[in-house]
Amino acid sequence: MLQKKLFVSFVLLCATAIGVFSRASWILNVYQDFFLPQNESVCACNKCLMEYDPWLSELMKESPEPFLSPTNNISDDTFKWWKRIQTDRRNFAFYNKTVDKVFQIFPTKVSFTRSSPDLCRTCAVVGNSGNLNGSHYGPLIDFHDIVIRINLGPTKGFERDVGNKTTYHVMYPRSFKHLENTTHLVFFPFKISDLEWLIRSFTQRQKETAKSGLKTNTNLVMILSPAFMKYVHYVWLKKHGRYPSTGFLTLVLSLYLCDE
């Protein structure tokens, strides 16, 4: 009889303990869900580029800030690398003076939408070859949040195939074209004289007296940093070739500007 009572008491004690444990576990789960920080995704897309491929994520972790600014200039070592891709003999001090002049004209802070758990930045990169002729991809390209176009790729008359939306337009002096007031100019300087060309193109006197004055919104000008060029050359291309092409630089830059 005593053994039976002990057994019943043991069963009741176990049941009570299970109930208490289950309630405590439920309370803990609620606390973790609502009060502790969660491991949020870097973006709101179904597949964020930086999470989808660990190899890609590691490459991007080494990336410097991609755009020049007064607070994000380059080192002397980076200048020496950049100088090798040009014939200009002017020194680092002259380069810095030129950059100072650049930011007397253009915004000192580069503004673009960065990755966020609340956003999904979809992106299309459109080159300047004729591969899209007859594709009818225009509506699909324009459907993206961000459309990046490179150099002299035309849109007028080809909207059905390439679309007409342009968020960022990549160019350098030899491929310049006038842009809409809402389009960001992403300028790729491969030498000091490219920066000087940019300054000349946006001075009031040049715009009034020469047809070559560049027409675009000065508040939306972004200048790629030589440090980003060097990073792409070293990390992505493993120093193959003298320097990265405009197309390849744009492709890597798009990974910085876009989530999908």
Automatic annotation (TrEMBL):
Q: How does it sit in the membrane?
A: Single-pass type II membrane protein
Q: Gene3D superfamilies recorded for this chain? A: Glycosyl transferase family 29
- Just give the chief location class: Golgi
- GO biological process: what's one of them? sialylation
Molecular function per GO: beta-galactoside (CMP) alpha-2,3-sialyltransferase activity
**Superkingdom of origin organism:** Eukaryota
Q: Name one GO cellular component term.
A: Golgi membrane
Q: Which UniProt keywords apply?
A: Disulfide bond, Glycoprotein, Glycosyltransferase, Golgi apparatus, Membrane, Signal-anchor, Transferase, Transmembrane, Transmembrane helix
Q: Which residues form the signal peptide?
A: none
Subcellular location per UniProt equals: Golgi apparatus membrane
Which InterPro entries does the UniProt record give? Beta-gal_alpha2-3_sialyltrans (IPR051757), Glyco_trans_29 (IPR001675), GT29-like_sf (IPR038578)
The record's comment on protein family reads: Belongs to the glycosyltransferase 29 family.
> What's this protein's name?
CMP-N-acetylneuraminate-beta-galactosamide- alpha-2,3-sialyltransferase 1-like
Naturally occurring in which organism (per UniProt): Pundamilia nyererei
